[in-house]
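Reminder: ligand-aware prediction takes two inputs, not one.
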Amino acid sequence: MSEDLLNRTGANILVEALQKNGIKNVYGIVGIPVTDLARLMELRGMKYYGFRREDSAVNAAAGAGFLNKQPGVALTVSAPGFLNGLTALAEATKNCFPLIMISGSSERHIIDLSQGDYEGLDQYNAAKPFCKKAYRVDRAQDVGLAVARAVRTAVSGRPGGVYLDLPADTITQLNNATDQTDMGIFAPVDPAPAQEPSDAAIQRAVDLIKSAKKPLMIIGKGAAYDRAEKQLQELVDATDIPFLPMSMAKGVIPDDSKHSAAAARSLSLKNADVVILVGARLNWMLSYGDAPEFNPNAKFIQLDIDATQFDSSQKIDAPLQGDIQSILNKLVPAIKETNYKVDSAWLDAIAADTTKNDAKFAQRIEKGKTKPEFGFYAAIDPIKEYFEQHPETYLVSEGANTLDIGRDMIGMQLPRHRLDTGTWGVMGVGMGYAIATAIETGKPVVALEGDSAFGFDGMEIETICRYHLPITIVILNNGGIYNGIDKVVPDQPGPTQLDPTAHYDLLAKAFGGDNYFVTNYEEMKETFAKAVASGKPNIINVQLDPAMGKESGHIGNLNPKLNLEPL
Ligand code: ADP
Ligand code: MG
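Here is what comes back for the chain with adenosine-5'-diphosphate:
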């Protein structure tokens, strides 16, 4: 055994183990006890990206996990850094994005005797409820194994966040094992094994589809994650089954496909007799599958890696457990063999509703362009047109009205080109996702933000400028959460109010990026394509009328209202 091997610290082993597992990028914030660790990563050829707030760094790693189908890796300091990252660890787990969050921590004996360490916290136990699995690695010789376990846990079965607790003394500890250590650095064989449903389960689903007069497929981000676009397109082409994409599944089948029922969403949900869920959950976003949004007599087929997801809100008549690709590889040929085709009456009904709704929508956009108050439709229309011409551009979106109206207006033609607020509907994910997307794909990214959403992680503009990332941040500034006209009592701004005259664009200027300020449709049209084409970090502050924007956007039904009478 070489001298080198004996002298390797836990940090050396960590870096080698990450590299062995194909991890090239790490997103984080340094400080005690992980500063030298990040330096070592750079010295050994990894790319370390330093952020301004841990949740953004962890969100970036989660976004990378979604885009690459491989765990993204984040690094934080102890207690406060760890806790800042924890929200994003929880979000990644809810979103089923594979992620490993590594935090420096204190030695066990100090924590367990409550001796009061610098940033001392029992992070290992604190993390457990918020991730798929937490591991703590107390000996340098176990670091390789810990990384392999973290990788497998993050990507196998239902993907999610893994927490890896790395005490300061493990980082510096010299490896004193023999050649076991070398064996400890490995990439797991087949980290996410394929899982196929049984023939009987496939047959059950095929029989149900054959009986369907009005089938509807709902495609979720599980299908996007699993890269099932080819099989799904084949299924739709063979059967004519119409589909609804969930927001992050837009582009799995192109939004401009004639089989998209997106513009006839209400009608298709209300009338579908067999609903096929492909990597989508019957959660709040789908009204739990309940009437009146859904047909009360609808039968459900669900494709999901996690069997505990079945029957979460509705009886699932044909559950298909497995990874989406393996399921579809069996299901699509089996359906094709039956020569099943959807009744044209169902397709005609959807087409008629689509035509009607498209016309209404187009009218709304046109009206927006000419009316004196500059609002969301007019501001987003140039972005919509840009994406029609440049489908390879990535889109990140958050904000209430910004998210909802942008989702409806901007078509996606390619899979995994849209990242947004996800399963929880969280604000403050935009900058982390945008940064990771630019880094991982090398393509231009548009971050379409509400002014309130941007506020959660806006300081990452410095990160974006420092790394010269081709990100255009569009801030639809209506001066508030939802809108900027809230006033409850005369002498104080209302709770939803923000500064409607804020020049967010100047933040880009402060750090060497480009800044644009637009106040109407024509200016936005002139500016947007130019800003993206520059390939430089930039912010477009879009000054909307503060009265534009509905409270809670499209989910006002979830917003408890009180009878607010003055005393
Ligand atoms: P959406 O928000 O788009 O409706 P959800 O995140 O609610 O999507 O649902 C995604 C579902 O996909 C989850 O239930 C998850 O278990 C499942 N899933 C994730 N990855 C895979 C995979 N590789 N194969 C099968 N199912 C998956
Ligand atoms: Mg706003």
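The longest helix spans residues 344-370. The first strand starts at residue 25 and ends at 28. We will return to this case in the review session.
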